[in-house]
Automatic annotation (TrEMBL):
Keywords: Glycoprotein, Immunoglobulin domain, Repeat, Signal
Spans traversing the lipid bilayer: none
Record's keyword annotation contains Nucleotide-binding: no
Gene this chain is encoded by: EBI3
GO cellular component entries: membrane
Single GO term (MF): cytokine receptor activity
Domain Ig-like: 12-93
Signal peptide bounds: 1-20
Family: Belongs to the type I cytokine receptor family. Type 3 subfamily.
Statement: the UniProt record of this protein carries the keyword Ubl conjugation: no
Domain of life: Eukaryota
Fibronectin type-III domain segment(s): 212-312
Identification of the protein by name: Epstein-Barr virus induced 3
């Protein structure tokens, strides 16, 4: 809870939001969108025309019975006492005599955004830190995210660059290596009903996690009926394997066996499995980690299978 702060922001216009009173500026001021929070009391406004004390309200084209439980007619205004999803719709108010449309309100009901759950990984150490976030449930209202970061308390705020509008990821380049000052990512989710922020502090070396190794090959070795040659490549997203080497774990199992073995770590990108059962199919995976043991192991690479050399 300590990290959660509700901040008020200037909301962008997705569609003309309803202002306090209906404008008299022609068609353009006639229609608007109003957002209301679930379970709250909502007021839909309309200006009574001169000479009339009341207006007629319609929902989805049907006249609202003033006696209806959820709806109370207060001269020109319509009260919704306990906003629910079923009350979304097209509301319109009309001149009681002529039926002329005075205002049209599209009502959307929802909640302020949830706190985004953030994850950051240095997949391409030391070039970038990639961060992703998600909301626990699909937001009902248009939601966008502001992502910024600071390197140290009181440091300048920088943008964590999102790949496009409405993205739920961003990346930080220009990383300072071996800094003990934590970075703090700030992701603020914004929708028409509010904004909710979450912070994610990290030290780059602690969130190193390469992508899985690639191009794993499992090959027989001519003449060796109990051996398999394994070869793979460092993940292509790891930019400088020569300066920031990786170490690898190997996990393998014989087809039909009910457990598998993990061996390593090894620093090279090939390995000969020995003493395995002749003729049996073997399944193999590899995982990578920073050589200096910073951060985490990658996920396991996809399974690749092979069979040792058999007498032709
Ligand atoms: C508002 O509506 C919800 C369900 O739509 C209901 O659970 C709740 O009790 C209602 N609250 C009030 C104050 O009527
Ligand atoms: C208006 O119509 C929409 C779409 O059909 C529906 O979801 C909504 O519940 C209706 N609103 C009311 C108050 O009947
Ligand atoms: C990390 O961010 C960079 C820069 O936006 C992007 O090119 C790369 O694909 C991202 N990597 C992952 C694993 O998302
Ligand atoms: C997080 O970002 C939001 C949106 O830019 C900003 O209003 C808020 O002050 C930031 N909070 C912190 C602690 O940096
Ligand atoms: C090893 O066991 C895990 C968990 O049961 C399984 O997901 C994985 O595919 C196995 N790996 C191999 C190489 O058989």
């Amino acid at each position: 809870m300590k990290w959660m702060v509700i901040v008020a922001l200037v909301l962008p216009a997705w569609s003309a939001p309803c202002s306090g009173t209906a404008g008299s500026d022609g068609e353009e001021g006639l229609s608007c969108v109003q957002h209301g929070a679930l379970g709250t009391e909502l007021l839909l406004r309309c200006d009574a025309p001169a000479g009339a004390a009341r207006v007629e309200w319609r929902v989805n084209g049907t006249t609202v019975a003033a006696a209806e439980d959820a709806v109370g007619g207060d001269q020109a205004q319509l009260w919704l006492r306990n906003a629910s999803l079923a009350q979304e719709g097209e509301y319109s108010c009309h001149h009681p005599g002529t039926g002329k449309t005075l205002r049209r309100i599209r009502l959307r009901v929802g909640s302020p955004p949830e706190k985004p759950a953030i994850e950051c990984w240095a997949v391409s150490y030391p070039q970038t830190v990639n961060c992703t976030w998600k909301l626990e449930s699909e937001p009902r209202l248009e939601t966008y995210f502001i992502s910024t970061y600071r390197h140290g308390m009181g440091a300048k705020e920088n943008e964590c660059v999102q790949p496009g509008a409405g993205a739920s990821s961003c990346s930080i380049s220009d990383i300072q290596m071996f800094s003990i000052t934590p970075y703090v990512l700030n992701v603020t989710a914004v929708n028409p009903l509010g904004a909710t922020m979450n912070l994610f502090p990290f030290v780059v070396e602690q969130i190193i996690r390469p992508d899985p190794p690639e191009d794993l090959r499992v090959s027989p070795i001519p003449g060796a009926s109990k051996k398999l040659l394994l070869e793979w490549q460092p993940p292509s997203s790891w930019p400088f394997p020569q300066y920031f080497p990786l170490k690898y774990l190997i996990r393998y199992a014989r087809e039909g066996a009910n457990s598998n073995r993990t061996i390593g770590p090894y620093e090279q990108t090939s390995f000969t499995l020995t003493g395995i059962r002749p003729r049996a199919i073997h399944h193999v995976q590899v995982a990578a980690k920073d050589f200096m043991d910073y951060g985490d192991y990658s996920a396991w690479s996809p399974l690749v299978s092979g069979t040792p050399w058999t007498q032709p």
